[in-house]
Amino acid sequence: MGLFSSPAKVYKPAADVDLGPGSDEFYISPNVKAPRVAGLLVKIFVWILEMPIVGQIVLYILKKDNLINKLVSDADIPEPPLFTATHSWEDTPEQNVRLTKPDLSAAERVQEAVSCLPARLEATLAADAPSQQQGLKRWTIRDFVDAYSSGETTPVQVATRFLAAVKESSAPGLNMAFFISCDPEDVTRQAEESTLRYQRGAPLSALDGVLVAVKDEIDCAPYPTTGGTRWLAAARRCVADAACVAQLRACGAVLAGKANMHELGAGTSGINPHHGSARNPYNASKIAGGSSSGSAAVVCAGLCPVALGVDGGGSVRMPAALCGVVGFKPTAGRLSNAGVLPLNWTVGMPGILAGTVEDALIAYSAIVDQSQPSYLRPELNLPQLKSTLSMNNIKLAKYAKWFNDSAEDIRSCCDKALKTLQAHYGWQTVDVTVPEIEEMRLAHYVTIGSECTTSLAKYLDKLKRSEIGWDARVALSVYGSFSSRAYLNSQRIRNRQMYFHKEIFKTADVIVSPMTGVTAYTLQDDAFDTGELDYINGAALVRYSIAGNFLGLPAITVMVGHDKGGLPIGLQFIGRPWSEATLLHIAFAMQEACAKGHKKPAVFYDLLKKE
């Protein structure tokens, strides 16, 4: 066991664990004690970690202090490993859905999704706010298309306003750092082509002319894919659109540029020393969250109704919650990973950030992977959002100890939102126990870290360390220290968690939780050049994210209110495999129930304004 060892955990068989509300399972809140480190202290810490012997000792102590050795590496676990989070198709009945034909094109699927929307989409999410100054008017995909079709405006005019807004937001006064790259000529060319199609009365789909940002972890021609670094684009050339981007392009979407991100996706803040740190439009002194920071921020600021992100550990849903937008991660395998940087094979996949649930549905319908033979492909149900109000007998599983392990403002706001759902729709909350939450977080951390260093090994072996940001160097040092035993035991924990969640889904339709344990925290000047090591806030931000990735489950977050400082709070719903339609129904119901209190971000652009 070694010099710094502590008794390892002995797990009882998963089938013997009580999942009921009265379970005696002990809830472990993240045992994170390390103080925040930034600036010169980060550099000193990196130098220590990269010393051959001393660094190994420090890493061992850190893993012991954070319980990785006790709960994962050295643990006695009866289950065999489960190496992937894939799910076989199960025909689970869903209410009020539309089954799509298997041979539809992306544009045809978008039309199917539009037909599922309510007859009138409400553009003003806070119509009853005390003043229009406070109220949030968020234009939807359908608002843009209606404006284009009526001739009220054109994609070129909107693209021109967009490019002016990007320039303004990037200037020293704001320095929002939304994008790593945005090519005005390419954006204008796409908008001109879209405008011509509308003039001819032949738009490609309801996404034609709609601006969509793409996280710089996803290939999108003509841009390089940097992964938030300053070296990866040269080492790995982008030669074609990723599958999800190609489908959006086929629908006529205007690809707006490559959105900023945390370097290599290895952090939760979105602080990037190479390309600037994406700021939160609700308060530019706060983080946007990571790693899909730019994608969340551009949607929040009104620059795009939809953006693509990649979610390996809450990296779509977490920044969505911090920026007050919808974050949607479908079931593992529902979207293609082709053309996405392979940073985490078994836990990561593309995801959608949108201003509304309706827009998330439209984007989802466009990018679902239909490349497999029809007999291998799961059925695609789209939710009839116009009939959400008639949904009945929905059961929401809640683990109180986990749900309440968040800041007071988040806890009270999410609890109030849940009671609102119950009051409006008569849906039932079912008390359950989700065991071994912290064990799952640590197992996921070992998994995503091991997969990241392995996928990058061919580049890192040839790379000067000075080309990597300081905080990313710390992450890579920790990731590279995990043993094969730690990785295998993590997959055994994945097997246990898959069993627990399947059992819970026998009694409930979704699991509900806050999306984050804290709201967006303050960007500090000493972190801009080096990044920061803030494991306390990091653990709080990922606390509710892990099951969606580690177990490949669909999950969605929607804003339900604000903290005392006016920062957004998100509520999350986690669903059964392939139950995206039910999740979108529930998220839409939650959105409609809470919409009146939404506030306008401090940095916000109205791209449909009339001249």
Automatic annotation (TrEMBL):
Pfam families: Amidase. Residues 179-584 form the Amidase domain. It comes from the Eukaryota. InterPro entries: Amidase, Amidase_dom, AS_sf. This is Amidase domain-containing protein. It comes from Urochloa decumbens.
